Predict the 3D structure of the following.
Amino acid sequence: MKARDLIETVYYRSLHPLGNIRQGENIFDSDWDVCIILDACRVDLLEEVADEYSFLSESTRKVSVDSKTDAWVRKTFSQANSHSLGNVSYITANPFSQQIPDESILQSIDHVWKYGWDDELGTVPPRVVTDRTISTFRDENPESLLIHYLQPHVPFIPWDQNTPLGRGKFGLNGSGVDDTWQRLRDSKISVADAWHGYRENLRHVLDEINVLLNNIDANRVIITSDHGNGIGEWGIYGHPIHMPFNCVRVVPWATTEANDHGKHRPKDHQTQSKVDITEKLAALGYIE
């Protein structure tokens, strides 16, 4: 391990107690019919494009329970009322769904990443999640839907600078993970370039959410995030676990509604596939 990486690791670990002390709000403590998770979405990023999407007109902020998805999953589900979880169908593109302490407490769970992963992109395209959600709504009509998209988390699908970083096993090289945030930390790309890719990836998923909201029915829809991303604040790049800082803990909280106009016919994406959880997490930059 390089000296800089060692110092960074020690620094992050020294912040863990502060991150765990800071309390966040569990999504299950709020009232909603549908809750949409935008993975790793900063508040200011969403606010920058909010005027482009009418369903983001009523937006505020809340504090997340943690700054990394695996911890967010464990805390969110273990601290929720088990009775309320029995009415929830969870549709998720994030491989950390395996961290749920007990899946049996949910009405159903759809691990979309197990069959919807695109090896060339190194992620689950948002259309797969949209289609699976619409199908679940129309076929099963669950009381509550929790939907977890992977975007705007890296890799940034519409961004041409993803190509030289390597798709498929995105970001893996001889020295470990080299995702967008590490490249920003190492001054290989500029803040402006990273932010551009980040913003375009958010637009990419928000376009899908627009499709979703016009093809399901729900009186109260929440659009939020599991955590944010550091772009250098307090020496934070990306979203290390148990961080106390606003850049990774404060998340958007937009309220809207959905109406099924029946115009989109979802595809059936479910196929048998060999799942390598380590490779999927590495593609997202979580494993070296």
